[in-house]
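Notes from the 1:1 (GR / supervisor)

We went over the backlog. Supervisor wanted to see one worked example end to end before approving the batch request, so GR pasted a single chain during the call. The sequence is below; no edits were made to it. Supervisor asked that the structure be written out right there so they could see what the output format looks like.
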Amino acid sequence: MSPDDPSHPSLSTHGLSRRRLLVDSALGFGALALTSLLQGSGSTAAPTSTGSTGPRSGTHHRAKARNVIFLYMDGGVSQVDTFDPKPRLTREDGKPFGLRMEPTQFEDNGATLGSPWAFRPCGQSGLPVSELFPRVGSCADDLCVIRSMVSRFSEHNAANYFLHSGSGMAGRPSMGAWANYGLGSENRDLPGYVVLDGGLIPSGGVDCFGPGFLPASHQASLLRNDLPALANIQPLEATPGLQRDKLSSVRALDAASLTRLGKHDALEAAIANAELAFRMQMSVPEATAISGESEATRRLYGLDAPSEHTRAYGRQCLVARRLIERGVRFVELTCTRAHGNARWDAHGDLRNNHSVNARAIDQPIAGLLTDLKARGLLEETVVLWSGEFGRTPFAQGRDGRDHNPHGFSLWMAGGGIRGGMAYGSTDEYGYKAAENPVEIHDLHATLLHLLGIDHERLTYRFGGRDHRLTDVHGRVIQAVLA
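Structure output shown during the call:
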């Protein structure tokens, strides 16, 4: 249970909860809040952390990581074309598929489809990586590839909800919201959970990033991959004094509403978000401005690349680094429109789809890993790369692959993860998890563990029972921990 929970013992043992305090304070709340805001409005606040990854307030054990950067691969990347080489597919390309086929999304199943791309051993570890990712391959010794991921859903919306929240339905808190609820941001002027919009919102919409039944202040703040990164970030008022007067009036009205309504999460969240928005007017432009970065850093992330999509994703990766430097707990990056609206969803035109998508992200991701490592940030930041499911090893039609939730790959790096290794395996065709299958709940349990949180103890009471990100499932994948 988070200390922010209004039922937390530290807030209720003296008979005065946080919400009760807001109600009883009534109109005086607005003035107090505004005074607090204005005291620090001249500059961006530094992270409150001392830099140690030892036990912090809200953790259950010593944390190995402080932050998460989630590189979300929208649409489902083919595991057998990226991080799970299968020589048998190459040998039997064009022949009838050798295993029983499960029902697929479109039931247009063809022959065995070998990968158009070769794999090569990378780094000192010799971890095999597809030629789609030559630059990411250079970081192979930092990667832990899990080849035995499974999902319970083969349709985008449900699979996206499941990946993000552990439930196949909309309305449950996302993993970023849970991390924010459990630990909060380390910078009072920035949100704890940020999504950088590369141009494609996942199937399922912004509910993938929502707070569900958690307090609404834990939802993601969605930033555009442009300047300004946030709409309405510039004050509309002619003078700072006029804006302060308006904010004071709004807070007085909100406090009066609290008096009438009593406990009301949506109203309290609105108050908290208004306060944060005021502070973000100074912090977000500074955090997302990359003009002060060196030319070497900009080249590292591919900001001078010929492809506009490489440049766009490179900017996202660079801003992600700047945000975690400033104490943002959980940052998710969505995909650019490198292949139009198709994302990685290669039902046809597999070669072109995966080529252009890989070209957009390969240099920026390698740049991010290299930069984090050089700055000493990778050891305290978990980088997660994953889509919602994988693709079939047999063709859809002649040149595509259908959805495959039975076995797919993702990778993690940094933040207490063992690098240069593969965990688990699929069968000889790369179709189904065969050894050490890993559920989405296991992934969530492991991420929380790295942040110092016991997934069974981080709970929130809703609808008469204590809920958690992993529901009643999940195990920490001990074999991938450093």
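Supervisor's comment: The radius of gyration is 23 Å.
Batch request approved.
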